[in-house]
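seq as requested:
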Amino acid sequence: MRKPVVGVIGNAHRVENRFQVQMVGERNLRAVAEVSGGLPVMFAGSPDITDIAALLDTVDGVILTGARANVHPTRFNVDPCEKHEPYDIHRDEVALALSVACVARGIPLFGICRGLQEMNVAFGGSLHPEIREIPGRMNHRMPRLENGDIHPDPTVVFADRHDVDLTPGGAFATLLGCEKIRVNSLHGQGILDPGKRVLVEGVAEDGTIEAIRIAEAPTFALGVQWHAEYDPQHNPINRKLFEAFGEALVARQKAAA
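C-alpha cells:
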C-alpha cells in the first residue's frame, strides 16, 4: 500500500516584500512524514487556484496548520480592527469550506492553532481577537524578549506553558490516556463561542478552549489550540495525536480501496 497523502494548507507570505509565495512550516511536514507515516503535500490557501473537490479526491487527510495571520472577523460577524492584523482572507475562504467538506466526505482533518479556530468558525462559531484581553485570562502569545523581539530559543518559545483539562471519557482523554496535559501556547485569537457541531474537549486553567472535535464526524476531526507539530518525536502528547491521525489516514485508504 502506498503512503497516505496528506494535504497541508499553505500560508500567504511575501519574500523580500516583493515576491508572493505560499509557505508551510517544515515542522508540520516532518510531523506528517515521520510520525503519521504520510506523504505531506502543500496545497495553496488561495481559492482561485485550489479546487477543493479535486484536492479531496487526491489526498487521504488534511492538516490546517497554525499561521501568523488571524481569521478575518467578518467571518463571525465582528468588525475588523487594525491592531488584530494581519489577516489572510484567501486562506479563510479555502480553510472554512475545506473543514466542512472534509467532515462531510469522511476525510481525516487535523486543525492546529489557527486550524482549530478555522474549524470552529466553519461550523458557525466565533473567536475573540485577543484572548489575553478577557479578564482572568493569561497571555497565550509566544514568549518575547524585553525589547519585544521573539525569543531566539525555540525550546523557550515552544515550552509547555499551561495545563489543559480534558473531558473525561472524551476522544482526547481516550486517545491520550489521561485527563490533564500540559501544552505550549503561541496564539492571540481563541474560541469565544463554539460552533454548532463543535464539542469542547479540552480547556486551559484560565478557561481558554484548547481542544475540540466535530460531533458525528465519521473519522478523525480534531483541533488543538497548541502547536502539536512541535517535537512529536519526543513529546508524548503530540506524538499520540499524530499517530492517531496516521491511523485514521490508513483507515481512510482501506475504506476507499
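Residues 5-128+189-256 form a domain with the Rossmann fold fold (CATH 3.40.50.880).
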